[in-house]
Amino acid sequence: MLRxxxxxxxxxxxxxxxxxxxxxxxxxxxxxxxxxHAVVARALYNEVDEMLQSQAQQTVAFFEATxxxxxxxxxxxxxxxxxQVFAQATTVDGAVIDRSPSLGQQTLLxxxxxxxxxxxxxxxxxxxxxxxxxxRIFSTPVHSPQGAVVATVQVARSLDTIDAMLKVxxxxxxxxxxxxxxxxxxxxxxxxxxxxxxxxxxxxxxSRIVRAEDLDQRIDGAYPxxxxxxxxxxxxxxxxxxxxxxxxxxxxxxxxxxxxxxxxATIQGNVDLLRRGASSDPAMLGESLEAIVQEVARMSRxxxxxxxxxxxxAGVRLxxxxxxxxxxxxxxxxxxxLIAHGRVKVRLGHEDQAQVLGDADRLKQLLLNLVxxxxxxxxxxxxxxxxxxxxxxxxxxxxxxDTGVGIAPEDQARIFDRFWRVDRARTRMAGxxxxxxxxxxxxxxxHGGSLSxxxxxGKGSTFELLLPL
Length: 469
Ligand code: ADP
Prior knowledge:
By secondary structure, the chain is α+β, with helices and mostly antiparallel strands. The chain has three domains: about 15-165, Beta-Lactamase, CATH 3.30.450; about 225-310, Signal transduction histidine kinase, dimerisation/phosphotransfer (DHp) domain (Helix Hairpins); about 315-469, 2-Layer Sandwich (Heat Shock Protein 90). The chain contains twelve helices and twelve strands. It has helices at about 1-5, 15-65, 75-80, 110-120, 160-210, 225-275, 280-315, 325-340, 360-375, 410, 425-430, 435-445; strands spanning about 85-90, 95-100, 125-130, 135-145, 150-160, 320-325, 345-350, 355-360, 385-390, 395-400, 450-455, 460-469. The strands form three sheets. A five-stranded antiparallel beta sheet has the order 2-1-5-4-3. A five-stranded mixed beta sheet has the order 7-9-10-12-11. Strand 4 (about 135-145) and strand 5 form a beta hairpin. Helix 6 (about 225-275) runs antiparallel to helix 7 and helix 9 (about 360-375) packs antiparallel against helix 12. The longest helix has about 55 residues, at about 15-65. It binds adenosine-5'-diphosphate (ADP). Adenosine-5'-diphosphate binds near residues 374, 420, 434, 437 and 461. Adenosine-5'-diphosphate binds next to helix 9 and helix 12.
């Protein structure tokens, strides 16, 4: 993985993009050039053919107007086009009657096949290579007034000028196309390079994170709001989440070991005391054993809470059944009276009837947690009030209010975090692990509800559980 990122791959995306784009352009240009060439060549050759045909017609008409075509002369017009047009008239036997001055002593070839064709009264075209030049020839019959074919006329033009022009055109297309393709390749490489640069940066950052195992790294730089920008954003978001998870994990391990260290140290100290002879003193023996029992109980609570939390993390598994919330609240109230032990007053406030779909055990655990917290953080003679309101919007609100120490605004969001305790020393004395509210909130959320707090320092707190009816 790592090597893939650090050494350039043999076929980079940039290369592939440029290559295919250039190839496509080259093919398109080639098709265009071939088509263009064919159309132009055809037009030029057609024009030659038309000219030959019209000149031949005029010549034939001239001959047919004479009394004896086999003794006629070529008309003056062939002399006018002297240098470009070659013309000759032959008898049906092939003897030359007359030829244009441009031909000199040369005779235009008249293939036998064409002569037969002419004798049958048909005209036709053919090409003739002579002295390295290509001649286009039109051969047509001359009729006597009686209608018999008595002679033939050939009119010819050299195709060299057209061939030379087409050659220049081909060369221009080739050179122009070549330059266009080269420019496109260069431009394509530059553009795709620029477009892919952010991707390279993202890959670099990712490999830096892997190498340095540093989750703090982010992709920075302003990316446009396009696919690449979205990728960078998503990547950063993902890194944030990963980092969060990783930190939580680390903090959990640190917290758990910290929480276990205190009771273990106490147990260890007491065991040492007993070893050193305290066991022979009944008063000290009792004290040490009591301390050990308390610490073991605290550790058991912690382990139980941790297990609950692990379960909650894996997604709380609920056995959903209709739960009469008012009955459940009554049970919680009775247990609260026992916990409060008369130190604080526990009251049942407004209570509607409400049924929700939920897990009765978990809901009771949640409420007991809120109530025991309320009792624990309320001074003697304070009041804890439990209430149940059925709201018209389809929600049930369960509230646990106390007149206790309250929670400072900056702590209110954090009390739901794992192991978070406002006053560490004090609450540990109270036996809290700092996991209770965290578990309570996951139970509430697993029921599709929510758990929140409203509190004023020194005046008291109200915890509010909302559940869908
Ligand atoms: P603990 O087991 O320590 O009570 P919790 O998660 O239940 O852990 O509570 C976290 C912290 O929130 C407590 O340590 C305490 O500081 C604060 N807290 C919870 N309930 C109350 C309350 N009713 N009044 C004041 N503070 C509270």
